[in-house]
Structure formats: C-alpha cells, structure tokens
Amino acid sequence: MEQLVQQIEAYKQEIDLFDAKTPEEVEEFRIKYLGTKGLVKAVMGEMKNVPNEQKKAFGQILNEFKLFTESKYETLKENHQPQADHQQQIDWSLPGDPIAAGTRHPLSIVRNQIVSIFKRLGFAVAEGPEIEDDWHNFGAMNLPEDHPARDMQDTFYISQNPAWLLRTHTSSVQARVMESQKPPIRVICPGRVYRNETISARAHCFFHQVEGLYIDDNVSFADLKQTLYFFVQEMFGKNVKVRFRPSYFPFTEPSAEMDISCLICGGDGCNICKHTGWVEILGSGMVHPKVLDNFGIDSNKYTGFAFGMGVERITQLKFQVNDLRLYSQNDVRFLKQFTGVI
Ligand code: PHE
C-alpha cells in the first residue's frame, strides 16, 4: 500500500504539470487518465489487493485522486472552449464588409422632380390602368376608329381580346379623370406607356410620360405657356429659353410642341439638338371641345389645356443619357452613378 500511495502522488504531480495546447491534447488527457482504460480506473482496480483494515483509508486517497484528476480535466477544457478560441482569432479592428445601398432609378428621380414642380402649382397626381380599352385611349380623345392619327402611336393589342390594348399615352388617365370629376380639374398623370417600336438607342417599346390637364373657366393659351415656362425654369434653370411650334394632336386645338434651348451646347448646335440649338420636350394644346363634350363638360363654359412629355427625354437632357436601352438593362454600373441624387 505504501508503494501504491507513492505511485499516486507521482501521478498527481504529472497531472498537475500537464498542459494542453490544443483541444486534441485535452481529449488525449481525458483518455489517458479518465477513460475506461485510463489510469484512474487502473489505480482503483488496486483496491482488491489492499488489506481490509486499510481499505477505508485507501478509498479516501483514491477518491481524492479521482476528484483531483477530474478537476484538472475541467480546467483544461475551459481553457480550450471552441468559442474562446474563435474570439481570440477575430481582429476587431478590421473594417467591416460594405453593404451596398440601393439607388433610385434615374427615371424615378426625374419623374419625382416633374411631379413636385407641378404639385407646387396645385396639380394633383392621377393614375390609371396600363391595360386600357379603346375608348379611354383613343375614342374619347377624338381618335375615332378610322382616324389616321392612330398610326402616330403604333399600338399593342391584347390578343385574347382586341378591345383591350396597352395604353399608348397617359391621356387615357385624363379621360378617366374627366369621366369622374367636374371642373375645375388640375391633374398630372405620370405612368408607363407602350408603343410597338423596334428597340434601338432612340426608341423603345415602352417609356414613361407625365401628362397634364387643366380645365376651368377662362383657361387660355397664355396660361398654358406660362405654366410650361415655369416648369422649364424650375427643371432646367433660369437661363433656358423656350419656343412653341404649331403642331397637330387630335385631342387639342390649337396644338403646339415646345422646344427648349439645347442644354448640351447652349444653343450653338451639337449632335443632341441636331445642330439646330433647340430640343423638343413636349406636346401641348387647348383641349379640343369635342373631348370636353365626350365627358359632359360644357365646352361653351369651360376651356382647358393639356400637355404630355416623355420622362426619358427629360432625363436624357438632365443627365446626358444617350441610349434609351440603358434605362431598362439594370446594369449597376449605370444605375449607381445616380447615388445620392434624390
Ligand atoms: N398624348 C400625346 C402623346 O402621347 C402628348 C400630348 C398630350 C399632346 C396632351 C398634347 C396634349 O404624344
């Protein structure tokens, strides 16, 4: 027994000095000392060789040896917790991964600007469906079925039901407003429109418009000009000049297209203005009496003006975007150039 006790003391010293550098070494310790074939078990097996009168004292020594080894094992384990190890490896001073913030689409930026300028003049926003019937898109707008001006807007018809089409302009929304409201009417209609065009840098099968409608007593062409002049100055700055050219739209009489002095060359002549110094930005005119009558608005009492512009064109002039296809290709290299523009 004396010898056994000495042996246990020697093991204790060995255990005390044991140091594990890795979790694997902690496991080796467990197997060597506390495993089923480990040292503690082996020493306990000696109990049967100890004389009966010494068994009690030896039992205490064994028990104490076992607790000693187990507590050493717990300490080793704590020092090698996987989490603790992981935390030691993180360098908290490293910069984080950047989170790319989304940006507003240039067409949305410009549409919002247009809308906010007209809102300041008291225009309300009106919206309507993109799938329309012939009446709201054409008929009510003074384009009966055989009207040649229908060709001005190549139309997509819905094959299951040719009475339906994709609206070719947001004048269809103006029709819906006149149908449901009485003058005074003062609305702008932003939205997507569709035309059956071959896609190229200068044309697309869909684009975006903002159209406007103002109906009240005594609305004149002077009001139309002043409203649009205000818009241009707010949108492009005080130095931009405007001019009106006579034009034709079935739903307005008289009709005019409005040009602004070219922002790119300042009027000297360049590719964008085709060397004329002017760029067309919208169509406009006094609402045709027939259109008012179509909605039971007395054309002897009320007059109105209307206008319509393409958001893509305004955006092209504001941001010098020269290929219409860029707007719908979702190329982040294009889109992220508008970061920070609201
Ligand atoms: N609806 C016309 C177009 O899409 C634009 C326009 C609107 C012209 C109102 C005059 C008056 O081309």
Cα shape: rod-shaped
Spatial strand sequence of the major β-sheet: 1-4-5-9-8-7-6
Bound molecules: phenylalanine
CATH topology description of the largest domain: BirA Bifunctional Protein, domain 2
Question: SSE order in H/E notation?
Answer: HHHHHHEEHEHEEHEEEHEHH
Q: Gyration radius, to the nearest Å? A: 42 Å
Total number of helices: 12
Secondary-structure-based class equals alpha+beta
User: Can you tell me the CATH architecture of the largest domain?
Assistant: 2-Layer Sandwich
Q: What is the H level of CATH, i.e. the homologous superfamily of the largest domain?
A: Bira Bifunctional Protein, Domain 2
Q: Can you tell me about this structure?
A:
The chain has helices at residues 2-17, 23-34, 39-44, 52-79, 82-89, 106-120, 134-137, 171-180, 221-236, 289-294, 311-319, 332-335, and strands at 124-125, 131-133, 164-166, 185-194, 206-216, 242-249, 252-261, 278-287, 303-310. It is 39% helix and 19% strand. The protein is α+β, with helices and mostly antiparallel strands and 342 residues long. The chain has 2 domains: 2-80, no CATH class; 106-338, BirA Bifunctional Protein, domain 2, CATH 3.30.930. The N and C termini lie far apart (89 Å). Helix 1 (2-17) packs parallel to helix 4 (52-79), helix 2 runs antiparallel to helix 4 (52-79) and helix 6 (106-120) crosses helix 11 (311-319). The chain has 12 helices and 9 strands. A 7-stranded mixed sheet has the order 1-4-5-9-8-7-6, sandwiched between helices. Strands 2-3 form a two-stranded antiparallel ribbon. Bound molecules: phenylalanine (PHE). The site of phenylalanine (PHE) has 11 residues, from strand 8 and strand 9.
